[in-house]
Each structure stands twice: as structure tokens, then as C-alpha cells.
Design brief:
Blueprint lengths: L3 E5 L23 H9 L2 E4 L7 H14 L5 E6 L7 E5 L4 E5 L7 H21 L2
Parallel strand pairs: 1-2, 1-3
Antiparallel strand pairs: 4-5
Helix pairs in contact: 2-3
Length: 129
């Protein structure tokens, strides 16, 4: 039984990344989560999405950890994004939306919010070893 590598992040992690600044750039190369999973002999669950904020990263990891047999999880990595980004889910279609800069709060709030995600994620991972 192979273990699972579970990863979430923004464009640097997104397996389907497409460059907006250089549209003709070929981004079909394997991204780091797939390369790491191969090196660790694990199956990769890559949840990353370009433009994602730490809300998305945290919540997709929590949802996935809850749905996967804990004995099958080998490693979980949160590739955190910039603290001022904001992600939210539209309830009707459960589609994630992103904003480059959160219009609510300021840098002190954004950093504190991000640190809360970090701490909560650490506690969750320690809880399930």
C-alpha cells in the first residue's frame, strides 16, 4: 500500500499552471509535488490552484485529510501563499474564487490570519502524526 503525499498551494505548486505573463510558455513539465512524490514513492494528491490564498490552501488540505484514511497519508505539505491574498468558496457551485489583495483588513490582520492557519495546520498534523 503506497502512502499519499497531499499538497496544496498557489501557482508555484499548481500542476495545471499556465503563465499569464508569457502565454506561449510551455508549462507542461512536472511540478515539484509530482517530482517529490515520485522520489518518495508516494501517490500525489495535488490540490494547488493558481492565485489561491491561504484560505484555500488550508481548507482544501483539511477537507482532504478528513476524507483520506489516516494510515495512507505519508506526508502533507502546505505551500503557503502571500498573506494578503484571499480565497472563498461560492456555496451554490462550490467553486473557489481568488482575489490578489483582500480588501478587508490590513497587513497586520492578514499576517495574523495566516499565522492562525499555520498554527491550526501544525496542530492538525501533530494530532494525526
Amino acid at each position: 500500500m503506497r502512502k499519499k503525499l497531499i499538497v496544496s498551494g498557489c501557482s508555484f505548486t499548481d500542476k495545471d499552471f499556465e503563465s499569464m505573463s508569457v502565454p506561449d510558455y510551455d508549462c507542461s513539465f512536472p511540478k515539484w509535488p509530482e517530482l517529490l512524490a515520485k522520489k518518495l514513492d508516494m501517490d500525489c494528491i495535488n490540490l494547488a490552484s493558481s492565485g489561491a490564498g491561504n484560505d484555500y490552501i488550508y481548507e482544501t488540505l483539511v477537507d482532504t485529510i478528513q476524507s483520506v484514511d489516516k494510515d495512507r497519508i505519508g506526508l502533507v505539505i502546505a505551500a503557503w501563499s502571500q498573506s494578503q491574498r484571499r480565497s472563498w468558496q461560492e456555496s451554490k457551485r462550490l467553486v473557489w474564487k481568488n482575489s490578489r489583495v483582500d480588501t478587508k483588513g490590513d497587513v497586520f490582520y492578514w499576517v495574523k490570519r495566516t499565522m492562525r492557519y499555520w498554527y491550526s495546520f501544525q496542530v492538525l498534523c501533530e494530532r494525526y502524526n
